[in-house]
Design brief:
GO cellular component, one term: cytoplasm
Distance between the termini: 49 Å
CATH superfamily of one domain: CRAL-TRIO lipid binding domain
Low-confidence stretches: 2-41, 51-85, 139-211, 224-240
Subcellular location: Cytoplasm; Membrane
Radius of gyration: 38 Å
CATH topology of one domain: Phosphatidylinositol Transfer Protein Sec14p
GO biological process, one term: cell division
CATH class of one domain: Alpha Beta
Mean pLDDT: 76
CATH architecture of one domain: 3-Layer(aba) Sandwich
Main location: cytoplasm
Protein name: Patellin-5
Strand order of the largest sheet: 3-4-5-6-7
Number of strands: 15
Shape: elongated
Length: about 575
């Protein structure tokens, strides 16, 4: 999801500080690339709009041009699939890393440990809390006048007035940092020692005793404060033991083997440039805290259940990666579109819902252990997708930016299916701005080749029916553990599938031909000589618009074989999918 740049050697440990010039140079490249991509897509959108206007004026001529363009684009697309090769994920085992990558990982770990110790992964306190400090009223500055007024109003004999101030002089010269402590104690003592009636003979003794008690009280307060400060210091974590920081449930530091996998994602996203990977990691952690990933998104119900058909996880590819489908054609429903993107509040809710879905997929379906599956396959269906300049454009761009910046190396393969010809043209414009690593992850295919392209990476039993596969939510007969046989029916030829059956067994099957427009039939032939062939399904032509999957069952009373026949009269080859089960009478 994070766009990659050309490979360079890992940065040495000394190159930790990034100068302003380097930052500007590094930030300029992706911005220029993004602008170029946006410009290409906008031009493609304009081309689409222009094509629609011309089609209104001359339908037949434009349709012919579109078909020619699509055929040419399909040829380019086939070259992309066959020419770029399939992306192969690197190992996350430290022992298998090349020396420069192992060194970069060690350097990044040191930077992370230092950042944790310095609190660099903590959000700064909000400005509002700094402006209104609740401790300020505790100074109680006006309280200083209270004891003085009590002393002034108390009648004191002449001899006492001349001698009493002498012991108070040392108090006036106490350090400023002890004033607040002494004020409270002096005020309390003044109230306790306040005489009910003036007694000239004993006043001097009373004042002296009061001062001694005040001194003792102040000393007691000082001792209490010292003990409290010491206790607070003992409760603070030591510099060597920083607070644990987690991302996707994995600690950023420590002995957890999953930590290496996470850090390697950021390093690979920045081609093992340590300081850039560290900046990306820090930015991602702080963004997660600001966005409220853990506190809000994982447990929140955002009330968008109607979008479950727009983005969903279904099955895994041939290497075990979970597959996420993005079906933007669902937004043809104008009411659904308005509920998702009608105003700013709805668009913000959609963005949170999309990030929430991704986070749940990462935590529930990925394994960050060194030998685990820690990335996924993204399938994006562009059939009947909404115009690129609609209300969703801003939130889509924002979502893409967030995914690129905060979810590095989470895509093993990105497959675009049912791609219109103008989108393929836009891809040709964008292609020079993409690295070879990124190109090897992305596949574009036209509508006629979408299903076959998916089958290269995902087994048909894992692909939903709507995309050409055999997977159905409510299927009670077959599951993803029942393998599918893939056959190619050549032009003007016939293909058969033979299923052996035992005595008193029941054969259950399902069959699909992509695009149909073929003849299909089924018959049972017994093993015994002279046995009669039983017509199970009379041969008939199956049009393209009929049910995508043909199902059937047959109970065999004797040993034999069930033969499914598919005849392709067309001049183009057809893809045939079939799977079956044979149940014995005991079962």
């Amino acid at each position: 999801m994070a766009d990659e740049t050309k490979q360079e050697a890992a940065a040495p440990a000394a190159e930790v500080v990034v100068t302003e010039e380097e930052k500007k140079a590094e930030e300029t490249a992706p911005v220029a690339e993004e602008k170029a991509v946006e410009a290409a897509v906008e031009k493609a959108a304009e081309a689409e709009a222009g094509a629609e206007e011309k089609a209104a004026e001359a339908d037949s001529e434009e349709e012919k041009k579109a078909e020619e363009a699509e055929e040419a684009a399909a040829g380019d697309e086939a070259a992309v699939i066959d020419g770029t090769g399939s992306f192969k994920e690197e190992s996350n085992l430290v022992s298998e890393l090349p020396d420069p990558e192992r060194t970069a990982l060690a350097q990044l770990k040191e930077l992370v440990a230092t950042a944790l110790a310095n609190g660099e992964f903590n959000l700064p306190p909000p400005p509002a809390k700094e402006e209104a400090k609740p401790e300020e009223p505790k100074t109680e500055a006006p309280a200083e006048a209270a004891p003085e007024e009590v002393k002034d109003e108390t009648p004191v004999p002449e001899e006492t007035k001349t001698e009493a101030p002498a012991p108070e002089e040392p108090k006036a010269e106490e350090p400023a940092k002890e004033e607040l402590k002494a004020e409270a104690a002096t005020e309390a003592v003044a109230e306790e020692t306040k005489p009910a009636e003036p007694v000239p003979e004993e006043e001097e003794k009373t004042v002296v005793v009061a001062e001694e008690e005040a001194t003792k009280t102040v000393e007691a307060i000082e001792e209490t404060v010292a003990v409290a400060v010491a206790a607070a210091a003992s409760e603070e974590p030591e510099a060597g033991e920083p607070k644990e920081e987690l991302i996707w449930g994995v600690p950023l530091a420590g002995d957890d083997e999953r930590t290496d996998t996470v850090l390697l994602k950021f390093l690979r996203a920045r081609e093992f440039k340590v300081k850039e990977a560290m900046a990306m990691l820090k930015s991602a952690v702080l963004w997660r805290k600001r966005f409220g990933i853990d506190e809000l998104l994982l447990d929140a119900d955002l009330g968008l259940r109607e979008l479950e058909g727009v983005v969903f996880y279904r099955g895994a590819d041939r290497e075990g990666h979970p597959v996420c489908y993005n079906v933007y054609g669902e937004f043809q429903d104008k009411e659904l579109y308005e509920r998702a993107f009608g105003d700013e509040e709805k668009r913000e809710r959609f963005l949170k819902w999309r990030i929430q879905l991704l986070e749940r997929g990462i935590r529930e379906q990925l394994d960050f252990s060194p030998s685990g599956i820690c990335s996924m396959v993204q399938v994006t269906d562009l059939k009947n997708s909404p115009p690129m300049l609609g209300k969703h454009r801003a939130v889509t761009r924002q979502a893409l930016a967030l995914l690129q910046d905060n979810y590095p190396e989470f895509v093993a393969k990105k497959v675009f299916i049912n791609v219109p010809w103008w989108y393929l043209a836009a891809n040709k414009v964008m292609s020079p701005f993409l690295t070879q690593r990124t190109k090897s992850k992305i596949v574009f295919c036209s509508p006629g080749k979408s299903a076959e392209t998916l089958f290269r990476y995902i087994a048909p039993e894992q692909v939903p029916v709507q995309f050409g596969g055999l997977y159905k939510e409510d299927d009670t007969e077959f599951s993803t553990s029942d393998a599918v046989t893939e056959l190619t029916v050549k032009p003007s030829s016939k293909e058969t599938v033979e299923i052996p059956a035992t005595e008193n067994s029941t054969v259950v099957w399902e069959l699909r031909v992509l695009g149909w427009e073929v003849s299909y039939g089924a018959e049972f032939t017994p093993d015994a000589e002279g046995g009669y062939t039983v017509i199970v399904q009379k041969t008939r032509k199956v049009p393209a618009h009929e049910e995508p999957i043909m199902k059937g069952s047959f109970k065999a009373t004797e040993p034999g074989k069930l033969v499914l026949g598919v005849n392709n009269p067309a001049s183009r080859k057809k893809k045939l999918l079939c799977r079956f089960k044979v149940r014995s009478a005991a079962a």
